[in-house]
Amino acid sequence: VAGDDVALTTAGEAFATGFGIDLDALKSKKAPLCRECLDWSERRSHLAGSLGRAMLARMGDLGWAMVERDTRVVRFSAAGAAEFQRTFL
Which residue in 8, 88, 89, 83 sits closest to 48, CA to CA? Predict the structure, then answer.
């Protein structure tokens, strides 16, 4: 692993695929699949790269969350927050 790129494990690939992410399509793109990114406001790392974008889009498709227009704010519905907790924590 070099720089800010991080690797996805076999278990991570299985999870992402099961979550509805097309990893083959993401891997064929020029952008890094996974990157670590420090959120300047929270001072915590989060998943960036094409996988991070795809996961956020998938959460939107599922109706869990939406990005507020013209901002970086992500709002989760009550049901979406519960599903996120069940799925990821």
Answer: 8
* Those residues with Cβ within 8 angstroms of residue 75's Cβ, 6 or more apart along the chain or in another chain: 65, 66, 67, 68
Spatial separation of the C-alpha atoms in residues 56 and 39, rounded to whole Å: 15
Q: pLDDT tens, 4-33?
A: 568 899 999 999 999 999 999 999 999 999
**Residue 26 near residue 33 (C-beta atoms within 8 A):** yes
pTM for the model: 0.86
Residues 6+ apart with CB under 8 A from 23: 8, 13, 16, 17, 33, 51
